[in-house]
Write a structure and sequence with these properties.
CATH class of the largest domain: Mainly Beta
Number of helices: 3
Strand order of the largest sheet: 2-17-21-20-19-18
Strand content: 35-45%
Distance between the termini: 70 Å
Amino acid sequence: MRARSLFFIFFGAAGLLGSCSSANSSDATDTKLESEVPAESQVDAVRVTATQPAQSLSLPGELESYFQTDISPRVSAYIQRLHADIGDHVRQGQVLADLEAPELTAALNEAASKQKAAEAVVQSSRGTYQRLRQTARTAGAIAPLQLAQARTQVITDSLNVAAARSHYNAAKQMTDYLHLTAPFAGVITERNLSPGAAVGANGAGALPLFKLRQLNRLRLRVAVPEAYVADMHQGNQVQFSVKSYPGRTFVGRISRIAGSVQAATRSEQVEIDIPNPKEELKPGMFASASLPITRPQSSIFVPKSALVTTAERAYVIRVAQGHASLVDVQQGDENHDQVQVFGKLKAGDVVLKNGTEDIADQQAVQVAVH
């Protein structure tokens, strides 16, 4: 009886262990199947973002000197000596050339002589008037009319001195024009004539003697289309590049805005000041400028790949609670790999990263949000 009881206990325990082992094996298999979700059943998705995008507008422009001028003689003369040539850096007020005009020198000497003569005459008449006044203190010694005439003569001679001085100053200014000076600091970029050449009204007056340009500070002028005029503000930073320095980016700031749209081109002139301390950039270079454009309102953006475009519609595939819904949208501006869309979307919605026509409306979809 005792042996029989032991038999049943042994086989019962064995059965119980077998049952537990089978149950554990089944649970492990189910857990393994649940953890191994097939990768092909998951679709990449992203969340819709609402941003205020900072875009850029690429426009061509040309670099110009901040100051530039043609230096031409104001009088007819001959070039006597040159003190500057192409490529020379000159300072403000520096003499660039000496001219020779004998007739101007003679006119100055004549004016100086006339001024001295007029001064001598007025000194004589003033002395006569003073003596007559001294004598007039004695009653009846000098007639009142004679004293009045002497006073009038002093006034006349004084006016002659003033006229002679004005003629001298004018002649002096004309002779000062024989020394050409730099109106500002810069670089001589052109010299057209040589010593001995006639300049002015009777010479090669059509050609300037020098061209002077400021190189340590430049201007970049661009024509901004009317649609983007409202986005232009003084002080905005502008990046640009030139072909002479491939791979390099230069920076300037918007300094002046014309304030008027040109009817012919429907654009507004904008000037950007460019610091150029090393004088690497040169006037006349063509530049490609990137102007910042910021839209005032936040917009909905999705990846370009999320947009599905057919002959009838454009839409994105939104996924909510495991099911897809096709949301019609209108396409706006592009910003790198993102596209602006308008439709029944809001920030935070989940859309498929790669839209496809193979997914139908309300189809069950498993997504992996990145």
